[in-house]
Amino acid sequence: MLPENERQTLRQQVLQVLKSGKADAYCHFHHHGPFFPGFVAAFLNLVAADISESADEVRRLREFLATRLGDMNVFAWTLAAMGDPPSERKRMLLWHLMTWTVNSERYFTVHAGKRGGTCWLNQRTGCHCPFGAYAFAFFYLRHFYGEERFHYRTFVRGFLTHARLSRPLNDVRGLFGPPGPPGEPQRWLTFALSRHPLTEAIYGWSKLVQRLNGDEPISREELTKTLAFPTSAGNNSPVPFVLPLGLALGWYDPDAPQVDFDELPTTLFFDGEGEVVMRSDYWSEATEVFFDCGIRDHVYRHQPTNLMVLKAGEPLLGTASLQGDHGCPSLEISRGNSWGNVIIIEPSD
Asked: Which of 3, 16, 95, 236 has a Cα-to-Cα distance from 264 of 20 to 30 A?
């Protein structure tokens, strides 16, 4: 906990964010970051819990958010405007939210199987919107429902596993795009909340955590430099300034168990997706074989029975599917070759 004088300073700084009584609109399900959709609404509840609902800043902003009640384009605004006791309209909205949550969980759980799978997108996804749409929704609903272990479910944690391990380790020709799932800070938040054991291997922020928690005070200049995010950076670049927020609010546990890539099994079977991955090891010179025999019912997916073989990141038997290719040969991005290499099993006579 912060000392009272520091709490007062932080409280005043947060109130400055909320004092206008308004927030900029955005589309939760199709935004282009990196930024934190719903940040103001989330901070509103933090301030209300610390001060009271009667504070002018809280009351004015709560009234403003209520003007968009039920507008899922500003998802967090609806959640922040619900309030107790719920009216008939709010109870109907709650039913809608819970139905959406259950349907999403059921659909993604089918794909997840025992180890993990896709959540409507896979290794080819070029845009982060399909991921951010439900990643931020799950993030806010976790708090709204009071389910602190929501992200421990296989369809969340296992999705991250599948996104990382079902694609080549090395991509010397740049065919596959950056490792997914795409988009920050929602990717780090999902890794952190799910306590995913590969978080440190991917982000490598343990030294930064040690510096922030160290006995020696950190100057404002050093902090600014350490947490800086250049405006020229893409939406797949890590966003270090969310780390202190994650630590302060308990989203991120730096002491959670971690593993490195070389501790992972070299053969993986994603039963929900019908995918097999075989590697010689987890080094850049690895030989890798990928076989895909599952259903094709979502975006950016190989044709089932796709086969790839790579050595040191070079396709020996590769795929014509590129990053952003959603599998439709009529579109320019597919160049008529979206199906890649396909194994055909003829019916027996």
From this structure: 236
pTM here? Answer: 0.86
Query: Which of 83, 115, 142 is the endpoint of a domain?
Result: 83
- Cα separation of 117 and 160, whole Å? 8
Contact 293, 300 (CB under 8 A): no
**End residue of a domain, out of 63, 83, 103:** 83
For 262-268, the CB contacts below 8 A with 24+ separation are 264/165, 268/115, 268/165, 268/166
Question: Which CA distances in Å does 187 have to 48, 167, 295?
Answer: 28, 17, 25
- Looking at the chain, list the stretches that DSSP marks H as alpha helix, in order from N- to C-terminal side: 4-18, 39-50, 56-66, 75-81, 88-112, 129-145, 154-165, 186-193, 199-203, 206-212, 220-226, 243-248
Q: How far is residue 23's CA from residue 17's CA, in Å, rounded to a whole number?
A: 9
pLDDT of res. 122: 61
Instruction: Choose among 138, 51, 134, 48: nearest CA to 84.
Output: 48
User: pLDDT tens for residues 298-321?
Assistant: 544 555 667 889 999 998 887 655
The angle at the Cα of 251, spanning 30 to 39, to the nearest 5 degrees, equals 40
**CA–CA separation, 287 and 267 (whole Å):** 12
Q: How many domains does the chain have?
A: 2
**41 found inside a domain:** yes
CB 211 within 8 Å of CB 226? yes
User: Does the residue 295 lie in any domain?
Assistant: yes
Domain holding 37, by residue range, is: 1-83
Amino acid, res. 154: T
Alpha-carbon distance of 173 to 133, in angstroms, equals: 30
**42 closest CA partner among 74, 70, 69, 20:** 74
DSSP string for 271-285: TTTTEEEEES-SSTT
pLDDT confidence band for 338 (50 / 70 / 90): very low
